[in-house]
Structure formats: C-alpha cells, structure tokens
Specification:
Layout (H helix, E strand, L loop, with lengths): L2 H9 L4 E4 L6 E6 L2 E7 L6 E5 L2 H10 L3 E3 L8 E5 L6 H17 L3 H13 L1
Antiparallel strand pairs: 1-2, 2-3, 3-4, 4-6, 5-6
Length: 122
C-alpha cells in the first residue's frame, strides 16, 4: 500500500478533492470541503489519519500495533495508521471508505443526498 494507491482510491469517490492546506508534506482529502483523510507523505513508513467511530477506533488500536490515536487530531474520532504492511491493504481501503462515509453522514441533508445519489450510480 502506497500513497498513489490511496490517492487513486480516494479520488474515485464522489465529490472528493485533494490539497496541501498545512504544508507541502501533508496531503489532505476532503468531501464537500470536510477532511476525511490526511497523509504524511514524507514519513517512512507512510502514515495516514482517518476519521473513525470512537468505539471502533479503540478496537482497532487494541487489535493493531500500527493503529494509533490520531496525531494532532481529536483522539476519540481519529486514528493514525502506520502503513507498514501489518494491516492488509483491503482493510485500510475499507477504513478509508468508513472515514469518507462518516464525513458524508455529517453533511447537510441536500449535500448528503447528492453524494448518495452519485454513489448509487457508480
């Protein structure tokens, strides 16, 4: 799993944008302007921050040594994942989708409906 795989996966989702709002080393993915993934692209191994349900966040931290409380984020709602090969790639992609959907579900009703309509058509 590398940043290009993650980038392509994120950009396939409806209404996703990417930018570097903080510095040239932190790639941010947003849906309707709201962050769902941050990637420290200068870190080796790669590290990403993902939004997560608080109960699931704790469960994942207990299950995987490479899942940590969200660096520089609300520790209850964000995890940092060290992409070191210890977590299967398909599981990380699933967590990215979960993060995306958590943010989509927090949007205004008309924004949410627009995105769900686009998701159904994909």
């Amino acid at each position: 799993m590398n940043i290009e795989t993650i980038r392509k996966y994120c950009l396939k989702k409806p209404v996703v944008t990417e930018d570097f709002p903080f510095d040239e080393n932190t790639l941010v993915f947003r849906v309707m302007g709201k962050i769902f993934l941050l990637a420290a692209i200068d870190e080796i191994p790669l590290r990403i921050n993902l939004k997560c349900d608080p109960e699931k966040a704790v469960e994942l931290r207990e299950r995987y040594d490479s899942v940590l409380p969200g660096y520089h984020m609300n520790k209850a709602h964000w995890n940092t994942i060290v992409i070191d090969g210890s977590v299967p790639g398909n599981e990380i992609l699933s967590w990215i989708t979960d993060s995306y959907l958590l943010v989509v579900n927090s949007l205004k009703k008309h924004e949410k409906e627009k995105i769900y309509k686009l998701l159904k058509n994909n």
